[in-house]
Amino acid sequence: MIDRSSRSIFTLTQFSVTVDLLASESLGRFYWSSKEVVKLNYRKSIRLIMQGNLGEIDIRSILQLIELGQRTGELFVEAYQSPSQTLVSGENACWFVFFVNGQIVYAVDKSYGQLKRLRDYLRRFNLADQIQFVSLDHGVISTTNDPEYGYLWLLLEKNILTPVQARNIIRSMVQEVLFDLLSLWQGAFIFEMGTALDPPLTAFEISPFILQMAKQVQEWKQFHPFVQSPDQMIAIADQPKLASVLSEKLYQRLITWAKNKSSLRQLSRYLHRDLPMVARSLAPYIERGLLFMIDPPRPVSQPKPISPWDTYPSITLPQVVCIDDERTVGKQTELILSRQGYVVSYFNDPLEALQQLFQLKPDLILCDISMPKLDGYEICAMLRHSIVFRQTPIIMLTGKDAFMDRVRAHLVGATDYLTKPFSEGELLLLLESYLPVQHRANASYF
Predict the structure, then answer these.
(1) Where along the chain do its domains lie?
(2) Along the chain (446 residues), what's the average pLDDT of each consecutive run of 10 residues?
(3) pTM > 0.90: yes or no
(4) Which of 100, 300, 381, 437 gives 412 a disulfide partner, CB atoms 3.0 to 4.6 angstroms apart?
(5) What spatial distance separates the first Cα and last Cα of the chain, rounded to whole Å?
């Protein structure tokens, strides 16, 4: 079996695969039949290894192929950004999925600590503290499997978990991993036939899970840019306003989650709710500026791990900066433009915006006129004195439609003027008139 603890990979024979692969068995020899020539690594123990890149075959097709052939074994998948990157680099997100007779029996996300995920799920049944009373030193089952799976069996053996609760946890774990894998753009995979987990506690048909999780992935994308990754954590932007619109119980829950830096994925585990449902519940408060999402911290010396949410195609997209002290306007503008393929950076603090502008070097700037600390006229005048922004379109936003305001905006170097409230059509039409045509073509994959 693949070494899951060290994630070492032995020498494999590589081959190419296509979506219409069919698994067959003939005269006791296992082989793959395909329209293309396929090289096989055939062993005396009849443990076939299939290896390839997700550019050659997607996750859905790999899973369907395993189901069709009713195979037993384990699938290893690792995300990466470059096809030339070595498999198992030690810093990318990776997953194991275990199969028995073409059905999924377990799945592991190796990005998390060994027992962190299991503890999160045990909270669902108020049993998170019980894991400290079991040890992998006890029991044969627990020492011959993945550590997390071993602890799960120990909790069953000691009657801390019921079989129904254990199956419930495994189902959620499998769904969680499939959600990530079906979101993956680039990566590599290895499938090795052989004994999987023993004994399996439960088994799930692959096809219904694929349909269910593919639907969730599509629903999840609707909440971009408010929510961008399951690993993002909630933070409270305005406690008094949030307290005024929520029940005391829900408000205290959010305070606790924010204080504990709970991620959206953890909330999904605690509440037994899928990720799109969690995002849907939080999105209205994020849109109103009462909550916001933050990325998980990481050591400065440690490179950012590659995850499914980082592996979208490398495409140059038009970058827009929006500066407006009204969070509702800023977030709504960010949402409208992100859906159209723009990369949007929103700032409600004009001083912070000025500090970031010279690093971002956006293709276009939307700037509110009436703001504390610095108004839009002052910002526009400062930017026009810099050679970096001399030709950058700057569109002024204001709630007034006075002639003198337009004149003053023109005098400080503003490119154009947009009166609030504006419609989505007005905003997009104005931006398209100033951004190069090639930028819009590049955004077609959204």
Answers:
(1) 22-219, 222-294, 315-442
(2) 39 32 32 32 47 83 90 88 44 85 91 79 87 62 64 86 93 94 88 79 92 92 84 88 90 91 92 92 86 73 51 62 90 86 88 83 92 86 84 87 77 88 86 66 32
(3) no
(4) 381
(5) 40
Q: Structure tokens of 269?
A: 């585990």
